[in-house]
Structures are given as C-alpha cells and as structure tokens.
Amino acid sequence: MTIGMGILWGGLFGAPLLAYLIHRFWRHKRHKLLPLSFAVLFVVALAWAVGLRFTSPLANLMALALAYTAYAFLAWEGWGIRDRRIGLRMILKFVTALPIVFGYFMATFGFPLLLFISFGLDEGNKHTEILEPGIGCEIRTQSGGPSWGTTVVSVHRELTPFLRWERAHQRLSEEEAVYRRASDLCRDAYTKWRNG
Fold first, then answer.
1. Averaged pLDDT score across all residues of the chain
2. N or C: which terminal CB in the chain sees fewer CB atoms within 10 Å?
3. For the segment 47-58, what is each residue's pLDDT rounded down to a tens digit?
4. pLDDT in the model for residue 147
5. Position 144 pLDDT exceeds 60
6. pTM score, two decimals?
7. DSSP letters of 37-59?
8. Sheet holding 52-54, edge to edge
9. What are residue 59's DSSP bridge partners?
10. Taking the CA atoms of the chain, what radius of gyration do you get in angstroms?
11. Which residues of the chain form beta strands (DSSP E)?
12. pLDDT computed for residue 193 by the predictor
C-alpha cells in the first residue's frame, strides 16, 4: 500500500470516527469547533473549485481528508438538532449521511477501485514541463486496471514552490494520448487555455 492509498483509505475510514470522537468528548469546545469546521470546509471547497492545489498530490489528499473530517463533524452536530418537524430532521440525517455511507462503502467494498484510483498518486508516472516562466504542465497517467487508463494534462501557474493554480485541466483516454509526445500534449493544452 502506498502512502497516498493509506491517506485515502484512512481518511475515508477514520474521518467520521474522529469527528464523532471530537463531537462526543469535546462538547465544551463546540463554540470554537463549529466555526472552524465551517471555515475549513469552505476554504478547501473554494480552493478546489477555483483550481488552487498543492504541488504534492499527498498534500491535496490531506486537505481533502481534513475537509471530510470537518464535514463529518458538522454532520454529527446537525444530527443532534432538536426540531419538532420530524420530516425535516429525517431528511437532514439522510442527506448528510450519504457521503459518509459512500465513504465507508469505498473504504471497504470499493477497496479494489481505490487501488486503481490511487495508482496515479505516486511520482513515478508523471511528466512535468516548464512552458513559460511561472507556467508549467503536468501529465499524469492514471491506470484503471489492465484494460483502460486515463491521461490527465494540467497547465498551471506556479504561485509558490508548494502551491499552484490549475488553469487548464484535460482528461484523455489512453488511445488519445499513447501515440502523442508529452510535449505536444502540453502545448495543445496550453494553446487551448491561451485561446480561451
């Protein structure tokens, strides 16, 4: 098991449990933890939506695991809401439980799928290229098993040595990418980004 797979599996399995333990035993800190959980969830979701990423895939997984823990904590807090409308409470519990149930499903029965997903997280199957000062390209080949795979081409602006802003993100099937040189894939993605 790789480090990335351990973070992915541990985050899916451990985040709801950790959130429950925090909810259960740190009730006296709730007034501080609720706004902090909302802030963590908001910042990570906003950064992900606008394309702000760490340069390390492991750091990205850690940020997602932290956001998932914050979500699970908020879900535990929401389940404790006392409301006279039982229908609203049941809908709230059902909707907030879906991501947690899906996470446990992926951590147990979906484990083989997680192995295929996390295969692309190591540093061995990637190509990086500098297109202009401060603008780079990264190509990752993510294996989906013996019969299919995906090549992800992303053009990014380097903000700091550990933070980047993805400006173009393109997924290609293995058939589309296998006969083309990596520099051509980067140039095509960069041209599409520049032209709009």
1. 80
2. C
3. 999 989 888 888
4. 47
5. no
6. 0.77
7. HHHHHHHHHHHHHHTEEESSHHH
8. 52-54, 163-173, 149-160, 135-143, 126-132
9. none
10. 20
11. 52-54, 126-132, 135-143, 149-160, 163-173
12. 79
